[in-house]
Amino acid sequence: MLTTHRKQQILSILKRQGQVIAKEVSAAMSVSEDTIRRDLREMAQEGLLQRVHGGALPASPAVADFTQREQIAPEGKVAIGRAAAKMVQPGQVVILDGGTTARQVARHIPLDLKATIVTHSPTIALELIDHQNIEVILIGGRLFRHSVVAVGASAIETIAQIHADTFFMGVTGIHPKTGLTTGDYEEAAIKRAMSHAAAETIVLASAEKLNAASPYAVVPLSEISGIITERSAEKTLLRPYEKLGITVTRA
């Protein structure tokens, strides 16, 4: 079987089953596992999938820069942002992640709501500039330009001093096998620190992030309380999370 044909078959399996197990694919195609692993390496370099131990998972498309990501599923992100904003209660301390979906949360917080928003994103802080009753705590650090957020040791130290009610987390991938993942090592550490600083973590996940994975783990699914996704998301994609007792809100 030609390499091109093998890779097409691998993508077909990935789409149909949501994962590729190298041992099973090598047996089905009558080629060695080394050959399949080489195919997977090459496909991962092309951004077609995310390699994991023993095989591969779908790669998240949400790894482009901030401007490009704003063009991905904009209507879905607006709906998710609106639903998340409704969950913010008066007097709460809420940590709001950076990213394009979190930006929609900030835009839909009522102007008269009195609460505290903690964020490491200057973009989010600017969205809240006209919310006179919102106290904004902006966490500083080294600017990670890809997501326009602060990262680094000083940011993590500041986050450790906060005890928030809720953390609205943005990720590039959420998968029953790998949990919550993102595309940068330092950004993963910041998200993990913010999750540990809140009583509950709710994940903002537009449909393209479901059943997808990125290189760096944030937290396992056992550490989150809820997921907000688009109404159009396939129920079969959401079922594994509901079985784990995670509250899934379809916005």
UniProtKB/TrEMBL annotation:
One of its GO terms (molecular function) is DNA binding. Residues 3-58 form the HTH deoR-type domain. Signal peptide: none annotated. Keywords: DNA-binding, Repressor, Transcription, Transcription regulation. Pfam families: DeoRC (PF00455), HTH_DeoR (PF08220). This is DeoR/GlpR family DNA-binding transcription regulator.
